[in-house]
Every structure is written in C-alpha cells, then in structure tokens.
Amino acid sequence: MASPISVYNSNALDTHISSTSRESLKMELLADVSLLPGEDRIIDKDIIYICPFNGAVKGKVLITNYRLYFKSSDADVAVMLDVPLGAISRVEKMGGASSRGENSYGLDITCKDMRNLRFALKQEGHSRRDIFELLFKYAFPLSHSLPLFAYVTQEKYEESGWNIYKPMEEFRRQGLPNNKWRITFINKNYELCDTYPTVLAVPFKSKDEDLRRVAAFRSRGRIPVLSWIHRENQAVIVRCSQPLVGMSGKRNKDDERYLDMIREANDTPKLTIYDARPNVNAVANKATGGGYEGDEYQNAELIFLDIQNIHVMRESLKKLKDIVYPNVEESHWLSSLESTHWLEHVKLVLSGAIQVADKVSSGNSVVVHCSDGWDRTAQLTSLAMLMLDSHYRTLRGFQVLIEKEWISFGHKFASRIGHGDKNHADQDRSPIFVQFIDCVWQMTKQFPTAFEFNERLLLTILDHLYSCRFGTFLYNCENARDQHEVRSKAVSLWSLVNSKMDIYLNPFYTPESGRVLYPVASMRHLELWVTYYIRWNPRIQQQQQSPVEQRYKELLALRDEYLKKLEELQLSDSSPSSRLANSSTPNTSSTSSTPSQQYTHLQTPL
Amino acid sequence: MENNYDDDFIGEIVVNEVNFVRKCISAESSQDDLWGKLICTNFKVSFIPQDAPSKQKSKLSHLLLGEHDIPLTCLEQVVTVNDTKGKKKVLGSNQKLKFNPTELILYCKDLRIIRFCFDEAGPESAKKVCLAIAHYSHPADIQLLFGFEYQGRRYHESKGERVNGSTPRGGLQTPIFDRPSDWDREIKRTGASEWRVCAINENYAISQSLPEYIVVPVSLADQDLKQYSIFYTDQRIPLWCWNHVNGSALVRMANINDPLQQKKIDQRVFTAITKSHPQRGEVVRSDLDKCLPNIQDIQSAFVKIRQICVIDPFEESEERWLTSVENSRWLEFVRAFLKHSAEMVYYLDGKNSSVVLQEGEDRDLSCVVSSLVQLMLDPHYRSLVGFQSLVQKEWVMAGHRFLDRCNHLKKNDKEESPLFMLFLDCVWQMMNQYPAAFEFTETYLTVLSDSMWIPLFSTFLFNSPKQRAQYLMDFAKNKAIPQGEDQVVYFPPVWNWSQQLSTKDQTLFNNPMYVGKGAACVQNGEVKTFRRTKKTYSSTMRGTSASQRNGLKGGEEPLPRRGSLLSELKPDFSPVKDESPIERFFRDWFSRPADQQGVLIPLLLPSHVALWKLFFLRWVPEACIPKGGPITAYHKLSQLVDEIEILQSKLRQYKGPSSGSTPLPSPSAPLPDQRRMYFKASSPSDSPTPPDYLSSSFPFTPVGNLCRRGIHGTPISKFLNGARIWLSTETLANDTV
C-alpha cells in the first residue's frame, strides 16, 4: 500500500499474520489480509461497498469464519473494512432482482459497534444469494449449530489471561478472610445460586443454613455477599439482588438479621442500602414478586439512585447512534445529544458510584442492588471500587475488576450482547457494559494521571466484547462457562492484552495508592466519547491516538536518548575535568514505559 | 505590592474605604469568610483582610494586583442589596442610593462574582464606598483611566534606571507594526516580493483608522491609492495581511461606499492584487458581513454563555445544560468563524488564490478571520512572539475598536462586543485539537484575556492607532515627557509580561508539548518549508466552478454555499457523486497526519467544538476537579521537558571541552530562574504525584471568586442529582489526602 489512505477498519482489533490460509487467497487485492490461526476463507466476491462518506466503492469482499474484509479496487478511493463477524447484529437483503436504480440490490448489515454497512451486487443471477446465506450463517453461528470463533481459533499466547483473576488471591489482597468475614464454598456446585461464582465472602457469623434461607428471599438466590472491604475502616461493599417482598409485603427475618450482621461487622450504627433503581420502578417490581427493603430493616437506610433499566439504556444508545452515524448531526448537535439522554445516564451511574464510594470511605458499609443485581449493581460496585482502590486502576487490576464484578458475578454478557445469535431484536440486549466502560473513560479524562491503562485498552475491550474471538465475555455466568469449558477451549482477551502491555499503558500514570478518586459528575465535564462513538467518521480517523499521550511518549524517548548519550560520553571520556554529569540527574525511572518511536521530527524549542 | 497599596502604588489614590467588611468566600457557608477593609481607589477595588492572608500556592501572583483586588475597568456591574428591605439596585456613576446596602455584589468582566457583606460595617461608610466604586468604574473620559496616571509616574520614576540609547523598546521582541521596518520584515519573512510598504497614511493623512504604514501591491502608485481611498469607508484602502509561499496573498478591505464606482475600483484593485501574484492567481472575495454573525449577535451569545456558566445556579442548570449551551449560540459562532477561516485556507493554500476579506468597516469580523487564517497557515504565528505580532498587526494596528468593544468607559452598551474573546476561544479550539502546535498555553490565552481589563497597557485601550497616538501625545505633553520619546516606552503594550507576572509565573505560558522550529523559519528572507511538501490534491483537483474566477462577476459571491462547508456531505448512503474541490481538499488534508509546523485545519464537526472550560468555568467551585483536569498531564509534561533540558545542557557542556579547545561560555546547568518549565523535574526524593494545589482551575482558584446569592447546600451537591443524601463532610475534608 503506497499512500496513507482513509482506512475504515477497526484498528483496535489486532490481527496476527498467518501463513496457512494465505495460499488459498489467490486474489491479489486480498493478499495482504492477515488471518488469525484457525481462520478460514468462506467466500470472496466482487462487490460494491456503498460508503456513507465516499459513495459507491468497487472492490472485493472476503468472508472468513471470523471476519468480513473489504478492500476497494480503485486506488483513488482507498477504502478498507475489517469487521469481526461477531460485531454484526443484523443482515438484511436490500432491494430485489427487479429493483431499479443503481446499486439498489444488495446487503444491508447493522453492526453492534455503532455503524452500518451496505453492499451492492450485480442484479443478474442471484449474485447475492450465496454470500447472504454464508454471512448469515457465520455471523450467527449459534443460530446455526456452529461453534463461536473463540472455539475455532488456534491462537497461542505465552501467558494465559485466564490466570489473571483468582478469587482467593483477590480476597487475600483485600485482607480476607478475617474475624468478621469468612470465605464460603457453599456455591461450589452452583446450588445456592446458579449465576454466582463458587467462592463467596459472607459475614463470619452467618451460617450456611442462614445463607440458604436468605437465598430463598433474594431474587434468583443472589444473596448479599462482599465485593470489597476498606482496609482501614473495614467498611464493605456488599452486592445482591432485590428482596422478594411482593405485593403482600412479605418479610424475612433471616434476611433482616443477615443484613444486620453486615452492619455489625464494622460496628457502625447504620447500614446504607443503595437501590440503583428509580423509586417507582422498585415499587412496580413488587407486582412481580420483587421489591425493596422496608422499615422492618432496622439500623438500615434505603436510598434510590434513579438509574434507569436496560431497555431505557438500549434506546438511549440507539438514539445516540442516530445522531452520530454516518454523519454527525450538524444543526442542533448539543440539544440532539441531550435528547438521547446518554450523558445524563452516565452521570447518574457515576454519581451513584460516587455516593457508594463516599459512604464506604467514611466508614459505613453499604449494600448495593437493583432488580437482579447483575446490571446496574455491577456498574455501581465496580465503579465505586475503581474510585476507592487504586489497585483496580492498574492495567492488571482493571482486568481483575472486570473478571470479578462483571464476569464472575454473572453480568449476562451472552444475553446483553447476543453473541452469535441472530435475534437482533432480543429485548434482553443492552449496552450496560459499554456504559460502564464509558464511565471509566470519563474518569480517565478527569484524572489523566490516575490510571495505568490508556484509552486504547478501553477500545480494545469494547471491540472484543463483540468479536467472539476470545472467551472472556462469552456466556452469562460461571456455571455456563464451566459447562462449555470456555477456559480450557478458548483464549482469554487478557492473554492478548498482557502479551503486549506497553501499547495499553498510559505514560502519564502516577501511582497514588491511598487516593480516593471522586470525578465531578456534572454535565459541565461529561463529554461524549467521540473516539469511540464517532470513530467510523473518516474526519476524525487521524486523531485516534491521543496527541498529548503521543507527544509525551516522544519526549520520553528523547529523554532516554539523551541519557544514553550522556552515559556514552561519560564512559568514553574519563578525564577528571569532564566528570560533571553525575551530579544531579533527576529521577529518570519515574515512568516505566520506554517507547521505541522515531523522534526524527522531534525538536524542542531551545 | 500584594494586598497593599500603602507602599505607594504609583499614582494610586484612595477614594473611599470602609472597615469591618465581610468578604464571602463560599456560597454555602460563612465560616471561611474574611473580615477586613474594603477600599476604592482610582485604580481598583481592594480588600485588605484583617488576618495575614494564607499563602495560596495555587494562584498566579499578579505583580500589580493582590488576591482580592479588582481593577475598576474589570467591573461589569455594581449591585447593592438591602436584604432586610428586600431592595436591590444596580449602580452607575453619579447615582443616589436610597437605602443602606447590606451587601455589595461585583460582577466582573473576567466572569468573577465577588460579594461583600456590611453587617458589621458602618452603614453610611458602606454606602459611600459603594457609590464611589460605581462612580469610579464609569470614567467620563478615557484619560481618567488609571493607566494614564500610572504610566506617567512610572516613566518619570524609572527614568534614572534607563541608560540613554539602550534597548529602545524595553527589549520588546514583539513587533508593534508602527514603523515601516516591522512591515518590511514581515514582507521579507513571507516572501511577498510584489508588495511594498506605503506611507501615504503617515500622520493619518488619509484614513482615521488605518495605521500609518500599510502594505500594498507594488503595481499601485501612491497617487492611485489616494484617489481610490475616497471611495472606501473611512478611506480604508485594501490592506495586505500575509503572503503564502505559493504567492497568494491575504488582503482585507472596507466596503466601497459609492455603488457607481464600486465595479471600477474593484477591478483596478483586484487586478493589482493579481499582478502581485507570481502565478497571477485569481482573487477570491469574501464578504464577511454576509456570512458571519454580526457584533450584536456575538455580544448576546457571550452574555448568554456567561449567564449559564457563572450566574445561573449550578445544579438547576445541569439538566438542560447542553441545550442551554446550544441556545447561547456561542459555540456555533466559534465554529462559524473557524469554518469560514478554513474555507479561506482552502483558497489560499489549495487553489493558490489570493483572498480579499471584505467587511463594512474592516475593523471587527475581519480581525478575527484574518488572524485565524494566518494562524492556520503559518506556524510562525503559533509561536509566542509570532502570536503577539499577529494580534498587534491584525487587531491593534488594523484599528479594532478596543475602547468601544470593551466598553471601557461604559458609555455605549450597543458597541460592546467580545470579538477578541471570540478570537481567543477559536485559538483555544485549535490548541485543543493540536496541542503540540502552539508555543503557548491556554493559561496564556486566559491571562491575555484578563489583561483586557487592566487599563495599564496601551494594547486594549484605544479604537485605532490614530486615537492612540493622539491621546498619548496629549498625555506626553501633560506629563512632560520629552518629544520623540517612543510611545512603546512610556505607555507600553501588554506584551512585556514582566509588568504583570514574575519570571516564574510566566513559565506557565510555555507549552511543554510544543514542536517548534526554533528561529521561526526565516532563512535568507525566504519562508522555509512550513507547508506540506506533497500536494497530491492539486493534481487531482476536479473542475473549478466558473463563478470562482477572479471574484469580479459583479461582486457576486464567489464561494459555493457559504457556511455549510462540511455539512455538504450527502445524507445516508446516497452515493456521493461529485465531491466539490473544497470537500476534496479537506478530505485529503484530514487523511494525512497533521504536521505541527504545517497548515493546520481544525476539525469542524460540532462534536469537536468544545466549551473552553478553563476560561468559562475556572471560578465555578462546583466544576472544579481537585487534583484533576488536563493540568495534571501538563504537570508531568513540564517535569519531563525540564529534565530533558537539563540533560541537553549537560550534553552541551560535555561536548564543549572535548570537541573544541575553548570551553563554551554557557553555564553548567540552566539557572533555576532561566528554566522554561513551571514544574521542575522531580528529584528521586520527591513524590512524583501531582501537588495538592493542582485543580482543573489552576492557576486560578474559585475560592472567594464566585459567590452567587441564595445558593444553599454544600459544594458536594454537584454529585447528588437525583439522590437525597449529602456526602459526609469527612470525605470533603479528606478529599485531597
């Protein structure tokens, strides 16, 4: 490829060069596709890509069992698409054999990652039949009794990302068990709660039969268990699902006593229960057997955080897509953005997490739940933990946080994302995890030095949330993961990330172990994450790497170069008169990254 | 000088004062309020706290103003309140007040809101001070602005320190463009060989608002120019601004009054401009009045954005924040000016056409557009000195009515308009998108904007070079300053920053990320390659529309579809068949990595035009992020660059004795006060974490600077939309631990 051209690939998706399938690709245009080990060609074809930015672009499309790849044949309009099939939510036929008009016959593809693709084919001879059927089959393998690509890939990494999170190690890091909290394996066969992990931390005083009785009173048996404990003041974050109060206002003494044990564990007068839902929703849940903790819970206060449910969030993001893709709404951008309510939802989630974190850091234990305790609850506990515990702000710690609060505690990734499933209109789908990552991004914007990882990590996580290349985000809970042997048969996303950590490191990172991070959850500071939501727009393509970060890395490389030169000079010139250099070289090892960028154009104005 | 004018701040006189005044520090509680004396002088409103002020590290310490001082020129509105009677009055000059004020609220032009309470003060003296402040902030005449008093005294008192003939302009590096040599240098720098300095306006013989020396096409004789001048508004003949290396020129001019003559004059002038183009490139005219908001619109947008940022209660305005920002139209206007300027860049850079900016008087919108175009095209103007020369050339010398637009005399609100502020915001947008392209920082832009309200510098006080010359001549006469003494010496411009800030504080202007070209790309009178070398687009350019030729078709609009440059992308999926050349130009430009020392075009998607938080929100306590914000990255960058500079100087030192026989005269390491970075490289013993005083408002502080009335609750209330419980106060106190 000669010139740097506008390339519409998801460049956060890393591909590996494979020699196996290369042979089968005789077509010159597609010769430079790097296929993954285990990735196979399914079909390739001449096609026209109806690019929303450049218009109709002729080229070739290649479909493998992992991706859809398109490259234009016209050098003048160089367009490339590289889309994992997992990112596809819907494939439709557009136009018919008799449709009039240029390029009116083809395929219309809706993606989960904020874009749509449209291809046109020749109208003669049912030219789209084979490609449509194959695409439909491989984009939705589970609907066609095919395995997800994560089970097909042959990728190998030195370090297994599955080892990043070991529940016992993480509990020990937090100082558990102790004389107030014990670790229980009561759920080792997923009998107490089929959507919880096997290892749980519960109040020391609680007996196993207490846990069983509490499970009977909590939606889907998701009993209150410890997520995090404050090392100094011993206040805890406990998560669970709603109590099964119902219309009749049932009470459960065991549940009430159990919550009081949580309060007693660090001996504060009051336990705060955060119900993530709006008050009215919590009341409405009584009709379906749910509800919230009433006055019968002594020594407890209940606070509603007004966060909307998965359906509201899904519609909000849909509206956002409407105003950013393919073109950014021009005339009333800000009010259109406001009317999607996306930032308002982000604000409510963040301000809820701030309250949780504040309560805990001032020594009071909290219980967090929503309805089932796997969507809003996961958002709140993980964000609060990110604010409270600097360990989770490291690259590895963040992986642990996601593994722990999201994956192991049964955020229903399979249902929310719909991996390999053709049912695009499924009401269970919702961008809850995307919203969480957005909140994290907002925090990194407000505290550019507080996180060890950079934006690229967040983009990579979101890309592979859909890609189905890794096992990390597959299935709804640990129970299902065990059944499908995902950890032995598929690769973890963290294997990829940790094999080339340096590209995910934030050069500005300055560890501050004791610091609690309170972002300002105000519309004044919350921004639309344009490098994610508007990244398919070619106008912002070149800005994907943060220029400030880029520049800092260049300067670090320059610093290292000078240090090297100075060292060389000191070695080569050992005459006593010139031994000036050792005197006061400032701290040079404050940042660990040593980028290998070129710094030819680098000049500081001196 | 801080907090104390008793040490004879030269020329300053106390007009009135009152004791036992309480200055409100936070809107929520009065426990931090300060007790002290409120003073009105002929320069400022001052507050002297009883207790010695706690040294706040987070603030810029201004050399002329203390922490609690407000120059009278900075006052926007003086409001007195009587709480018990429920009365409120906005005070002007020479007014009466029928009640004893219990409170004084000062709304400042720099967006601060400062409150004083008189609950323990003598009611009569409180009233007197309020009236004095109101009166002295409405000067009847420009000569009553404190700068005239101050600079006269300063001139005489510092006389002894000046050695005859040494550094005539106080060592000022910024060209003022009040003499032919400054223009000559600019002609050479840009390679504008077909343009000359013309002196027909010497002693302002032709135009009241043009500078004495202007640059015109060589093919036009003085005689022609004199003849044409009578047809232009205020005799403002076309004024050269800048030349592209490809030969195209940027020119600005006023309207021609006589419609009968217009065609003829246009033709002659445009022909001359074409002749000055080595490739005889066509001339494109852009009528700014037709495609950009007018000064009243801009003023009303600024009033609205100020209202929502600092005056409206914080929490209440959260819900509709984005819509309110949109309704203010401020960002829309910022975008419109950037967009229009980017279009001009297309003509100059992409089409080799000369551009003529035309505006009724050529003194408002033209200033913004011509300076933005040059900022986008010429990296020289992105250096500190280059930027200041740009302001000098396109604003001060071109006759922007600073006196009227700033409304320093508070006489005519209709003339007030924050065009310069709008320009600074546009510069910030560019800086926000290309953080390594500017030598200076957003702190510099903010301090520059604040300097508009300190009446001690000649830069922002006058409507035109002529007015400036006249007043300063009278002034020199009154103050017995000898004839022939340079105005820049006795009434200096703002550009000598040591007038306001310490050397250390000035380092906050330095952008550690800057990718500079050292000596601003002048070599042998030729501008060196500051534009991209590969211009593939010019060869692939598709047809040019006929209406763009020479801009002479009866003055018709040469530009296709004004103001909708980037919106011309076609709607969903309809194939884009004919991309216009201008779209093609931008698409090409954006498809390549940006060269910091080349042409820079801002992204103009509405999603990429942001609110300038440091300027608009720096005083808002609820919006302040403790130990956060972009400054924390700046802190690390500065430390790294400081370290690099120490290493560089060591390397130089090393090379000295070993490479040559004579040791270099340069000192071993930069002395602490010569170091360019505000934050110094940390030594191994230092903690690498950002200092506690950093916040998103740094180097400014909301403390005591924004007290709206009638807001209750704690500052933490910002967290609590939709929730019901206050955060514990312990956490507040431990926030930064």
What's the gist of this structure?
The complex is a heterodimer of chains A (606) and B (737). With 606 residues, chain A is of the alpha+beta class. Helices cover 33% and strands 14% of the residues of chain A.
Identify the notable features of this structure and list them briefly.
heterodimer; A: 606 residues; alpha+beta; PH-domain like; Protein-Tyrosine Phosphatase, Chain A; seven-stranded antiparallel β-sheet; five-stranded mixed β-sheet; B: 737 residues; eight-stranded antiparallel β-sheet; 22 helices; disordered N terminus; disordered C terminus
Helical coverage of chain A, percent range? 25-40%
* Overall body shape of chain A: globular
Strand order of the largest sheet of chain B: 4-3-2-1-8-7-5-6
Fraction of residues in H or I helices of chain B: 25-40%
Task: Indicate the mean pLDDT of chain B.
Answer: 84
Name the poorly predicted regions of chain A: 1-12, 14-26, 577-606
User: How can the largest sheet of chain B be summarized?
Assistant: 8 strands, antiparallel
CATH topology type of the largest domain in chain A: Protein-Tyrosine Phosphatase, Chain A
What's the shape of chain B? Answer: globular
**How large is the count of helical segments of chain A?**
18
Tell me the span between the first and last alpha carbons of chain A: 38 Å
CATH architecture of the largest domain in chain A: Alpha-Beta Complex
Name the quaternary structure.
Answer: heterodimer
Radius of gyration of chain B, CA atoms, in whole angstroms:
27 Å
Pfam family, one (chain B): Myotub-related
Protein name (chain B): Myotubularin-related protein 10
Region (Disordered) (chain B): 535-572
Family (chain B): Belongs to the protein-tyrosine phosphatase family. Non-receptor class myotubularin subfamily.
